[in-house]
Automatic annotation (TrEMBL):
Cofactor dependency: a divalent metal cation
2-C-methyl-D-erythritol 2,4-cyclodiphosphate synthase domain segment(s): 238-390
Protein name, entry field: Bifunctional enzyme IspD/IspF
Record-linked CDD domains: CDP-ME_synthetase, MECDP_synthase
Positions annotated to bind 4-CDP-2-C-methyl-D-erythritol 2-phosphate: D244, V245, H246, H270, S271, D292, I293, G294, T368, T369, N370, E371, F375, R378
Gene that this sequence comes from: ispDF
NCBIfam families: ispD, ispF, PRK09382.1
Organism this protein belongs to: Rhizobium puerariae
Positions of the UniProt region annotated as 2-C-methyl-D-erythritol 4-phosphate cytidylyltransferase: 1-237
Site (Positions MEP for the nucleophilic attack): R158, K215
Keywords: Isoprene biosynthesis, Lyase, Metal-binding, Multifunctional enzyme, Nucleotidyltransferase, Transferase
Amino acid sequence: MTIGIVIVAAGRGERAGSSQDGPKQYRRIGGKPVIAHTLERFLTWPRSGPIVVVIHPDDETLFAEATGRLPGADRLVTAFGGETRQRSVHEGLRTLSASEATHVMIHDAARPFVDHGILDRVAQALDEGQEGVLPAIPVTDTLKRGGSDGLVYETVPRSGLYAAQTPQSFLLSAIRVAHEKAAALRREDFTDDASIAEWAGLPVTLVEGSVDNVKLTVKRDIDMADEKLSSRALPDVRTGNGYDVHQLEPGDGVTLCGVFIPHDFKLSGHSDADVAMHALTDALLATCGAGDIGDHFPPSDMQWRGAASRIFLDHAARIVRERGGAIMNADISLIAEAPKIAPHRQKMRETLAEVLGIAVDRCSVKATTNEKMGFVGRREGIAAIATATVVYRGDAA
C-alpha cells in the first residue's frame, strides 16, 4: 500500500482578512507560511508517498517562495484547482492517479497543526482495510438550533456527534470514482470528501483526531496560531566543530583560509590542502548532520586533485542555507610553528566572509604554535581547529 497525499491550497480565504494580505495559506505564522508548516508535517512523515499540492493558478510564485527552502520540496507536484474546494480535490485526485499511490490522504493546507500521531492512526485504519477514514473529535459544546428570527428552537443532543477534520483518507480509486460521479451530476453541495464518500455508499470509519488540528479560517485564527508558534519557539542554535591536519613537504608556500603565503614548505594533500577551510567545512556540515568533507569530495575522485578548498567551503555553506540555516560565526585556530599568520589574518578573514556570505566581524582567525612539541613542533605539519555557529529556522534539518 502506498499512501499518496493531496494538499488543498487553492482557496482565496476571503474570511481571513483583506485581499492585500494574500491567501491565508501563505500568511506567515511562527516565521514562515502556513502552507510550509503543513507540508513539513507530511514531508517528514515516514509513510508519505507522492504529494500533490493543488494551488490557484495565480499563486505559483507564492508557492515557490513558500516551499523553495523546504527539505524535500523536490517531491512536491502541483496541480491547478477549480472554483470550489470540491473541484480542486478532484483535480488533485486526477493528478495523483498517475502515480503509484493506492490510497490517498486529503488535507487542507490551512490545518498546519496536524501531527504524525493523527497520520499514524489514519494509516493504521487503512492498513486494516477500511475504504474511508475520518479523523474527528467528539462535540463537547451544547448545540442549539435557531431560527431566522434569532430565537432558539431546540437543543440538539450531542451524543454521537463529531467535528470532522482532515486528512480524510480513502482507497484512491474509490474516492476518485465518487468525485467523478458527483461532478457528472453537477453536485457541488458537499462540504467535505467524507460526505461525498457517504453519498457514494463508501463506508467511512472514525478515528481519533486532535483538538490542536484546527483549521485557520478567520484572521483571528491566524493571529492566534502565530502567537502560539512564536511564544513556544526557541532559537535553534547549533555549533559544529572540525579538525584537520596536513603534512608539510618542501615547496614554495602554503594556502591557509584561501590565502597563499610564501614559505619554504607546502602542504601535502589531494586538493590545495588548506587545513583551515577543510576544518571549517566539516564544522558547517556538522551543524545539520550532513557528514564530512570526505563524503562530499572523496580523495579518490580525481576531479578534486589540486582543487581550491573554497569550493568545498562554499558547498558546505550552501547546504546549510538550503536546510534553513544562517551562519552566525566562524572561528579558526591554526596550529603551526611557521609561517607567521598575523600579517595575513585580515585577508584570511575577508576571504572567509566572502565565501560564507557573512560580515567580516563574524569571522575569526587565530594562530598559535605547539611550543616545539609533537609533529607541529617539529614542523612536520600544520593543524587547524574550526568552530561554526549556525541558527536554523523553525523545524529545519
